[in-house]
Amino acid sequence: MSHLRTRAVHAGQGPDPAHGALATPVHQTSAFGYGTLEHGAAIFSGDAPGYRYSRFGNPTVQALETKMADLEGAPAAVAFGSGTAATASILLGLLKPGDELVFLGPLYGGTESLFRSLGERFGIRAVDASLRGLPDSLTPATRMVWVETLTNPGLRLHDLSAVAAVARSRGVVSVADNTFCTPCLTRPLEHGFDLVMHSMTKYLGGHGDATGGVVAGSAALVAAIRSTGLGQVGGNLSPQEAFLFLRGIKTLPLRMAAHCEGALAVAQFLSTHPAVAVTHYPGLASHPQNALATRQMQGGYGGMVSFELAHGGRAGAAAVLDRLQLFTQAVSLGDVNSLACHPASTTHSFITPQARAQNGIREGLIRLSVGIEHPHDLIADLAGALDAAGHAGT
Ligand SMILES: Cc1ncc(COP(=O)(O)O)c(C=O)c1O
User: Fold this and answer.
1) 242 and 157 in one domain?
2) Ligand 1, pocket-test mutation among 202, 233, 335, 350, most atoms within 8 A of CB
3) Active-site annotation holds for 67
4) Least confident of 197-201, 213-217, 358-362
């Protein structure tokens, strides 16, 4: 099973041995009977395989973990109830007071705030290396480097092989949040990263009906994260949600191809519209990292597009957003249906105006999560909203 499209369907799943069910059964149980005292003792000590309690492991969840490890090319994976629980479990499982965590910002706001508030409360120092650069930001106390494979909402990239090489040369664990790219477009472990994590809530689920997170990497790192994040913190994914993710991931490669096709068409349209000052999309020749994106991303440039209106600021953005019909105004991303949001007043409203300015998050910026609808309909929707809002195309 060498092709990702095949593995997305089959990895981790097969007809259920009990009754031959083709869909992986939802093992909706909190505890598992282990029969005899000695068998229970062996399961608890790890000497025998088997399940004991769903906080530690569950067959439906394990099928998903196996599938995600396979798709990311990792020996092991562990699933969580949200991407945020996955992030917190990586921190709590691998770091200790006095350690430094260096990240290349901007990150998803929730991740940055988790690093700064939770991390710092427990003596883990979070350092944004985006201005000084990674090599100059690492100190003897640095234990972890964190990047996102595509940033939000600027849609910039990091050279993953270069970041992993710096981390490795300094003996530091490297982590990539691959939520925006998915393993269809980028596989950080192939670039030398130690760990890859996702908010499965987005493209992996794909239908906007479940929250979840996953971390994949070496058996030793994943075991440490699992024991803290599940055993001690209790951030486990429910079997019902695992079922939805298993189902969603089967069509991930097909969906991502449609997201990429639609986003490229939408970006090309926006980039030639006179009301749009700048369009951020890695697939456009005008994107400052188009060459890196072409090298690092496989099979497309993702489903996210951001654009800034030439005039009108927040009122101009509202005039466009409030007129969209096919794009629903909502945060989140990666759903089959298209979403649009105003980062300055939603996803990035909690950071300082200076941080917004530093990251180009101006009042006229709009972020699109391009769904799998026909690109012509999406472009017509955007054209109609831009024209009706007074941003006529000629
Ligand atoms: C890049 C990225 N990482 C992590 C998260 C957190 O994931 P969750 O909302 O599933 O906790 C998000 C959520 O928006 C995200 O966009």
Assistant:
1) yes
2) 202
3) no
4) 358-362
Q: Which of the following is catalytic: 5, 7, 52, 55? A: 55
- The rounded Å distance from CA 255 to ligand 1 centre is 19
**Which among 51, 108, 203, 281 is annotated as catalytic?**
108
Provide the domain limits for residue 121.
4-250
Query: Would 393 be classed as within a structural domain?
Result: no
pLDDT tens by residue, 100-136: 999 998 899 899 999 999 888 999 999 999 989 999 9
pTM: 0.97
CATH code for the domain of 318: 3.90.1150.10
Residue 177 falls in the annotated catalytic set: yes
Query: Over the stretch 21-80, which tens digit does the pLDDT of each residue have?
Result: 999 999 999 999 999 999 999 999 999 999 999 999 999 999 999 999 999 999 999 999
**Position 394 in a domain:** no
**Strands in 238-345 per DSSP E:** 276-280, 304-309, 328-329, 339-341
Angle between helices 375-388 and 252-271 (to 10 degrees): 40
Question: Judging by DSSP bridges, how do beta strands 365-369 and 339-341 pair with one another?
Answer: antiparallel
Question: Domain end: 198, 225, 250, which one?
Answer: 250
The pLDDT assigned to 372 comes to 98
Binding site membership of 343 for ligand 1 (Cβ less than 6 Å): no
Q: H or E element: which one contains 216?
A: strand 213-217
Shared domain for 215 and 245, answered yes or no, is yes
Name the residue at shortest CA distance from atom 8 of ligand 1: 83
The count of domains in the chain is: 2
Nearest CA to 162 out of 128, 182, 192 is that of: 192
Task: Indicate the SS3 state at residue 383.
Answer: helix
Per-residue pLDDT tens over the stretch 320-357: 999 999 999 999 999 999 999 999 999 888 888 888 88
Q: Which of 177, 194, 335, 381 is catalytic?
A: 177
